[in-house]
Design goal:
- With about 250 residues, the chain is mostly helical.
- Helices cover about 70% and strands about 0% of the residues.
- The longest helix is centred in the last third of the chain and has 38 residues.
- It is elongated, with a radius of gyration of 21 Å.
- About 40% of the residues are buried.
């Protein structure tokens, strides 16, 4: 049976990352979470948001449940390209696939929690809504380490790529290492209720938001481009009578 890499499917999966980014922007706009409600707001003000915007939040979270699932397909598309970079036991690929499964769980906890709060908001105590809203933003931002690990795995795989030329340029490895480092200030949100390091602040929301989702868009284009290089390599190997499977 002839071995063939299904780069067409990988391309489609890679483009699903743009769907995630778009769904996040649309849902946050619908829910009125751009910018997010400040953690310094009193509990009654947070409850009022979920009572008054209940319908918008329900619609927004429904969009998120669909769009955020695309993180799994997007991350696995990158993992498939990493597999083509590795020889022997695909350690980096396996870690990346496991990481993708964990990442989609973090993403989906957000709409689950917000939807539940909107569903029961009039009957819930204000302090409880405030705490669960904090929990949701913490899930979104404080969960940065697994995503940073994925970035590092991508960078290492690119530097260890046995293909000539590399499937992804060396600058992409450096870019992933940079992104892993620059999202680390997310760890500070649990120490502040005002200022740039809160989950509504300039650094821990706007800057990290731009870095992370800019990374997703960039890696989408880079992954699609890598698929073209895989096609070229496989065509060359076929012309030489070499089985692609023998090179993995």
């Amino acid at each position: 049976m002839e071995h063939r890499t299904h780069t067409g499917l990988i391309r489609v999966m890679a483009w699903s990352g743009v769907v995630l980014v778009g769904s996040l922007a649309l849902s946050f706009w619908l829910m009125g979470f751009l910018p997010p409600p400040s953690p310094a707001l009193p509990a009654e003000a947070i409850k009022a948001i979920f009572v008054e915007r209940a319908l918008q939040i329900r619609i927004g979270t429904a969009i998120e449940c669909l769009g955020f699932t695309c993180y799994l397909t997007w991350a696995c598309a990158i993992a498939m390209v990493l597999r083509f970079m590795e020889r022997g036991l695909p350690v980096l690929t396996l870690v990346s696939v496991a990481n993708a499964g964990a990442g989609v769980v973090f993403f989906l906890i957000m709409p689950f929690t917000w939807a539940t709060l909107a569903y029961r908001a009039p009957d819930l105590d204000a302090w409880f809504i405030q705490v669960m809203n904090d929990w949701t933003w913490f899930t979104f931002i404080l969960s940065w380490p697994p995503f940073a690990v994925f970035m590092v795995m991508i960078g290492i795989a690119i530097l260890r790529d046995h293909n000539v030329p590399r499937l992804m340029p060396r600058w992409v490895a450096m870019y992933n290492f940079w992104c892993a480092l620059t999202i680390s200030p997310a760890a500070l949100i649990e120490f502040f209720k005002t200022g740039p390091f809160t989950y509504a602040g300039l650094i821990d929301f706007w800057f990290i938001f731009a870095v992370f989702f800019g990374w997703m868009v960039t890696m989408t284009f880079v992954t699609v481009r890598a698929c073209s290089r895989i096609d070229s390599i496989e065509a060359s190997r076929k012309d030489q009578g070499v089985s692609p499977a023998a090179t993995l």
